[in-house]
Amino acid sequence: MTSSTGVASNVTSQGNLNLGIQWGELLIGIATLVFASIYFWQAFQLPAGSQSRPGPGIYPLLIAILLIISSILVIVQSFIKKDHEVAMAPLDRDGKKKIAKFFLSTVIYILLLPALGNYIAGTLYVSYIFFVIGNLNIIKSIAFGAIISVTLSYIVIEFLGVRFPQGFW
Protein backbone atom coordinates (compact mmCIF):
# COMPACT_ATOMS: atom_id res chain seq x y z
CA MET A 1 0.00 0.00 0.00
CA THR A 2 1.35 3.48 -0.73
CA SER A 3 0.82 6.61 1.32
CA SER A 4 -0.02 10.07 -0.03
CA THR A 5 3.72 10.65 -0.43
CA GLY A 6 4.00 7.59 -2.65
CA VAL A 7 6.04 5.63 -0.09
CA ALA A 8 5.14 1.99 0.49
CA SER A 9 3.39 1.39 3.78
CA ASN A 10 2.47 -1.73 5.73
CA VAL A 11 -0.54 -0.10 7.40
CA THR A 12 -4.02 -0.71 5.97
CA SER A 13 -6.73 1.93 5.70
CA GLN A 14 -8.18 0.60 8.98
CA GLY A 15 -4.83 1.15 10.73
CA ASN A 16 -4.00 -2.58 10.94
CA LEU A 17 -0.48 -3.77 10.24
CA ASN A 18 -0.33 -5.73 6.98
CA LEU A 19 2.75 -7.95 6.76
CA GLY A 20 1.61 -9.64 3.55
CA ILE A 21 0.84 -12.86 5.41
CA GLN A 22 -2.27 -14.77 4.41
CA TRP A 23 -3.38 -15.62 7.96
CA GLY A 24 -6.08 -18.12 7.01
CA GLU A 25 -3.66 -20.16 4.91
CA LEU A 26 -1.02 -19.95 7.64
CA LEU A 27 -3.42 -21.27 10.29
CA ILE A 28 -4.66 -24.08 8.04
CA GLY A 29 -1.06 -25.01 7.22
CA ILE A 30 -0.07 -25.11 10.89
CA ALA A 31 -3.17 -27.09 11.90
CA THR A 32 -2.56 -29.57 9.08
CA LEU A 33 1.10 -29.89 10.03
CA VAL A 34 0.16 -30.68 13.65
CA PHE A 35 -2.43 -33.25 12.51
CA ALA A 36 -0.02 -34.77 9.97
CA SER A 37 2.73 -35.04 12.58
CA ILE A 38 0.43 -36.89 14.99
CA TYR A 39 -0.79 -39.07 12.11
CA PHE A 40 2.82 -39.81 11.13
CA TRP A 41 3.69 -40.77 14.70
CA GLN A 42 0.68 -43.09 14.90
CA ALA A 43 1.37 -44.58 11.44
CA PHE A 44 4.98 -45.20 12.45
CA GLN A 45 3.68 -47.50 15.21
CA LEU A 46 2.25 -49.89 12.57
CA PRO A 47 4.43 -52.64 11.09
CA ALA A 48 6.02 -51.52 7.83
CA GLY A 49 6.72 -55.02 6.56
CA SER A 50 9.49 -55.67 4.07
CA GLN A 51 10.28 -54.52 0.55
CA SER A 52 8.84 -57.72 -0.92
CA ARG A 53 5.77 -57.75 1.36
CA PRO A 54 4.77 -54.25 2.51
CA GLY A 55 2.92 -54.16 5.81
CA PRO A 56 -0.14 -52.17 6.84
CA GLY A 57 2.00 -49.24 7.97
CA ILE A 58 3.32 -48.28 4.53
CA TYR A 59 0.19 -46.61 3.17
CA PRO A 60 -0.45 -44.47 6.28
CA LEU A 61 3.22 -43.42 6.33
CA LEU A 62 3.02 -42.29 2.70
CA ILE A 63 -0.16 -40.33 3.40
CA ALA A 64 1.45 -38.73 6.46
CA ILE A 65 4.52 -37.71 4.48
CA LEU A 66 2.37 -36.19 1.73
CA LEU A 67 0.33 -34.31 4.35
CA ILE A 68 3.48 -32.94 6.00
CA ILE A 69 4.91 -31.79 2.66
CA SER A 70 1.59 -30.22 1.64
CA SER A 71 1.19 -28.39 4.94
CA ILE A 72 4.73 -26.99 4.74
CA LEU A 73 4.02 -25.76 1.21
CA VAL A 74 0.81 -24.08 2.41
CA ILE A 75 2.72 -22.38 5.24
CA VAL A 76 5.42 -21.14 2.86
CA GLN A 77 2.78 -19.96 0.38
CA SER A 78 1.02 -17.97 3.10
CA PHE A 79 4.15 -15.83 3.44
CA ILE A 80 4.90 -15.28 -0.24
CA LYS A 81 1.41 -14.83 -1.68
CA LYS A 82 0.87 -11.27 -2.83
CA ASP A 83 -2.00 -9.13 -1.55
CA HIS A 84 -3.29 -8.46 -5.04
CA GLU A 85 -3.78 -12.17 -5.74
CA VAL A 86 -7.34 -13.38 -5.55
CA ALA A 87 -8.17 -14.52 -2.06
CA MET A 88 -10.86 -17.01 -1.17
CA ALA A 89 -14.24 -15.48 -0.55
CA PRO A 90 -15.47 -15.84 3.00
CA LEU A 91 -17.76 -18.80 3.52
CA ASP A 92 -21.44 -18.12 3.65
CA ARG A 93 -23.73 -19.82 6.17
CA ASP A 94 -24.44 -22.74 3.82
CA GLY A 95 -20.73 -23.33 3.23
CA LYS A 96 -20.06 -23.41 6.97
CA LYS A 97 -22.90 -25.92 7.42
CA LYS A 98 -21.40 -28.18 4.74
CA ILE A 99 -18.00 -28.10 6.43
CA ALA A 100 -19.58 -28.92 9.80
CA LYS A 101 -21.57 -31.78 8.24
CA PHE A 102 -18.41 -33.14 6.62
CA PHE A 103 -16.47 -33.17 9.90
CA LEU A 104 -19.40 -34.61 11.86
CA SER A 105 -19.93 -37.37 9.28
CA THR A 106 -16.21 -38.19 9.42
CA VAL A 107 -16.37 -38.59 13.20
CA ILE A 108 -19.48 -40.78 12.89
CA TYR A 109 -17.71 -42.91 10.24
CA ILE A 110 -14.75 -43.43 12.57
CA LEU A 111 -17.10 -44.42 15.41
CA LEU A 112 -19.12 -46.81 13.22
CA LEU A 113 -16.09 -48.43 11.58
CA PRO A 114 -15.38 -51.01 14.32
CA ALA A 115 -19.03 -52.08 14.55
CA LEU A 116 -20.01 -52.08 10.88
CA GLY A 117 -16.72 -52.77 9.13
CA ASN A 118 -15.21 -50.74 6.30
CA TYR A 119 -17.51 -51.93 3.52
CA ILE A 120 -20.75 -50.81 5.22
CA ALA A 121 -19.42 -47.80 7.16
CA GLY A 122 -17.49 -46.59 4.10
CA THR A 123 -20.54 -46.94 1.85
CA LEU A 124 -22.69 -44.98 4.30
CA TYR A 125 -20.03 -42.30 4.68
CA VAL A 126 -19.32 -41.77 0.97
CA SER A 127 -23.03 -41.89 0.12
CA TYR A 128 -23.76 -39.23 2.74
CA ILE A 129 -20.97 -37.01 1.42
CA PHE A 130 -22.34 -37.27 -2.13
CA PHE A 131 -25.89 -36.61 -0.96
CA VAL A 132 -25.36 -33.73 1.45
CA ILE A 133 -22.23 -32.04 0.18
CA GLY A 134 -22.33 -33.09 -3.47
CA ASN A 135 -26.04 -32.31 -3.83
CA LEU A 136 -26.76 -35.56 -5.68
CA ASN A 137 -30.10 -37.33 -5.37
CA ILE A 138 -30.31 -40.21 -2.92
CA ILE A 139 -30.25 -43.00 -5.52
CA LYS A 140 -27.13 -41.67 -7.27
CA SER A 141 -25.48 -40.96 -3.91
CA ILE A 142 -25.99 -44.53 -2.70
CA ALA A 143 -24.89 -46.00 -6.04
CA PHE A 144 -21.73 -43.88 -6.29
CA GLY A 145 -21.01 -44.32 -2.57
CA ALA A 146 -21.29 -48.10 -2.78
CA ILE A 147 -19.23 -48.40 -5.95
CA ILE A 148 -16.44 -46.11 -4.75
CA SER A 149 -16.30 -47.36 -1.16
CA VAL A 150 -16.49 -51.07 -1.96
CA THR A 151 -13.97 -50.78 -4.80
CA LEU A 152 -11.43 -48.82 -2.74
CA SER A 153 -11.96 -51.02 0.31
CA TYR A 154 -11.48 -54.15 -1.77
CA ILE A 155 -8.27 -52.81 -3.28
CA VAL A 156 -6.82 -51.73 0.07
CA ILE A 157 -7.95 -54.83 1.97
CA GLU A 158 -7.41 -57.57 -0.60
CA PHE A 159 -4.53 -56.32 -2.75
CA LEU A 160 -2.54 -54.25 -0.27
CA GLY A 161 -3.31 -56.51 2.69
CA VAL A 162 -4.32 -53.69 5.03
CA ARG A 163 -6.79 -54.99 7.58
CA PHE A 164 -9.70 -52.89 8.80
CA PRO A 165 -12.21 -53.78 11.50
CA GLN A 166 -14.46 -56.53 10.15
CA GLY A 167 -17.67 -55.36 11.81
CA PHE A 168 -20.47 -57.74 12.70
CA TRP A 169 -20.35 -59.72 9.44
Topology of this structure?
Elements: H1 23-44, H2 58-80, H3 93-133, H4 138-159
Task: Explain what you see.
The radius of gyration is 22 Å and the shape is flat. Residues 1-12 have low confidence and may be disordered. The chain is built from 4 helices and no strands. Helix 3 crosses helix 4 (138-159). It starts with 22 loop residues before the first helix and ends in a 10-residue tail after the last helix. The relative contact order is 0.10. With 169 residues, the chain is an all-alpha fold.
The DSSP helix count reads 4
The count of β-strands is 0
Low-confidence stretches: 1-12
* Number of structural units classed as domains: 2
Question: How would you sum up this structure in a few lines?
Answer:
The protein is mainly alpha-helical and 169 residues long. It has helices at residues 23-44, 58-80, 93-133, 138-159.
Essential attributes:
169 residues; mainly alpha; 2 domains; 4 helices; flat; disordered N terminus
